[in-house]
């Protein structure tokens, strides 16, 4: 990702030069001026689940209204890729869901601090025919064990995302270090695309509840098989990249974004998102602990 955009040069009038100069200054500073307010870009790396669930459509306009000095640009990728972007100083702040990896990111000096923001849970979704016979269970590891034993079709994101990391932990507990075979399909896609593929191919898949709820009307071939297991808990955290590692990062904007997410306003919006449409919140705020 390019953080600085350069302009073109050539034979131009004085007015043209002034316009070009203003554009170059904005590009180099990462900002523009709107209604007398200096606006700078704030680049957020986040998970596909926050994007696919529609949560950012609710949060970002409210953040920008409360903080008119920042214009948010989102790079929606898996958690692993989001953290790599932070390590490379390509983004200003990350919002992800793999606590162990997040804590290491901070411990290694790439993040300045980590704040918990919200949680939901993962659900094991599968074809309504349920060839592995796991529907209605509350033990995710037992369900994974049964799926592997029957070699029932399973679709994995395979993208080092938080969901993929959680899935691999469940396979490990089920006795499989590295699932493989024709029954185990690695698609390397985000959550929404992976659910669509599972629906089309009749496969089981681990999904975050938020994305599942937001898409289930378009996934008639799938249903929840297992839910409610403590092993399916899914915590999200926000981390500004370290200004010591990334001196050109928009550190002030990153901290403002973090503080707003954990503020009463941010937490109330998270708590209410999805209730009207889905009958339940897609995420549960827990910044207060």
Quaternary status of these chains? single chain
CATH superfamily of the largest domain: Periplasmic binding protein-like II
Task: Give the H and E element order.
Answer: HEEHHEHEHEHEHEHEHEEHHHE
| Shape descriptor | globular
* Gross CATH architecture of the largest domain: 3-Layer(aba) Sandwich
The share of residues in helices is 40-55%
How big a fraction of the residues is strand? 15-25%
Structural class: alpha/beta
Please count the beta strands (DSSP E, at least 2 residues each): 11
Average pLDDT metric? 90
Q: What is the fold named in CATH at topology level of the largest domain?
A: D-Maltodextrin-Binding Protein, domain 2
* Spatial gap, N to C terminus: 34 Å
What does this structure look like?
This protein is α/β, with parallel strands linked by helices and 289 residues long. The protein folds into two domains: 14-119 and 235-285, Periplasmic binding protein-like II (D-Maltodextrin-Binding Protein, domain 2, 3-Layer(aba) Sandwich), CATH 3.40.190.10; 120-233, D-Maltodextrin-Binding Protein, domain 2 (3-Layer(aba) Sandwich), CATH 3.40.190. Helix content is 40%, strand content 22%. The strands form two sheets. Strands 1, 2, 3, 4, 5, 8, 9, 10 and 11 form a nine-stranded mixed beta sheet that branches. The protein has a two-stranded parallel ribbon with strand order 6-7. Strand 1 and strand 2 (37-46) form a beta hairpin. The chain is globular and about 60 Å long. The model is unreliable at 1-30 (pLDDT under 50).
């Amino acid at each position: 990702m390019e953080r600085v955009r350069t302009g073109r040069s050539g034979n131009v009038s004085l007015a043209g030069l002034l316009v070009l100069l203003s554009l170059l200054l904005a590009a180099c500073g990462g900002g523009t001026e709107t209604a007398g307010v200096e606006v700078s870009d704030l680049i957020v790396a986040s998970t596909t689940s926050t994007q696919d669930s529609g949560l950012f459509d609710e949060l970002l306009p409210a953040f920008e209204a409360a903080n008119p000095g920042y214009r948010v640009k989102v790079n929606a990728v898996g958690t692993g890729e989001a953290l790599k972007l932070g390590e490379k100083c390509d983004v200003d702040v990350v919002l992800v869901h793999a606590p162990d990896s997040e804590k290491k990111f901070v411990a290694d000096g790439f993040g300045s601090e980590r704040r918990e923001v919200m949680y939901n849970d993962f659900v094991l979704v599968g074809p309504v025919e349920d060839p592995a016979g796991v529907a209605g269970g509350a033990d995710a590891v037992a369900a994974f064990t049964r799926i592997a034993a029957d070699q029932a079709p399973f679709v994995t994101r395979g993208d080092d995302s938080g969901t993929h990391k959680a899935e691999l932990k469940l396979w490990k507990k089920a006795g499989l270090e590295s699932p493989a075979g024709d029954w185990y399909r690695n698609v390397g896609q985000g959550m929404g695309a992976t659910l669509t593929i599972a629906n089309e191919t009749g496969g089981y898949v681990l999904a975050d509840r938020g994305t599942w709820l937001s898409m289930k009307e378009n996934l008639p071939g799938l249903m929840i098989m297992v839910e409610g297991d403590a092993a399916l808990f899914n915590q999200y955290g926000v981390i500004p990249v370290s200004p010591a590692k990334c001196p050109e990062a928009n550190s002030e904007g990153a901290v403002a974004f973090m503080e707003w997410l954990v503020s009463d306003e941010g937490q109330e919006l998270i708590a209410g998102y999805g209730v009207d449409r889905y009958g339940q919140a897609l995420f549960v705020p827990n910044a207060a602990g």
